[in-house]
Amino acid sequence: MAYADAAAALKAIHRALSLPDALVLALAERIDADAVWTFDRRWQSVDPRVMVP
Known about the structure:
Elements: H1 3-13, H2 19-30, E1 36-37, E2 50-51
Parallel strand pairs: 1-2
Helix pairs in contact: 1-2
C-alpha cells in the first residue's frame, strides 16, 4: 500500500487528523518506527507508538 493510501485510510477512520498528520503516522507505521513524538495528544488514540512529552 502506498503512503498516500495508508494516510487516506487513517484519515477516514480518525476524522480529527489532518492529512499531514495522517501521512506522518502512516510513514511511522510503514517503517515500523519504535516511537512517534508529538505534542498533539489526539494522536495517542490513533497509534500506540505515539509519545507525548
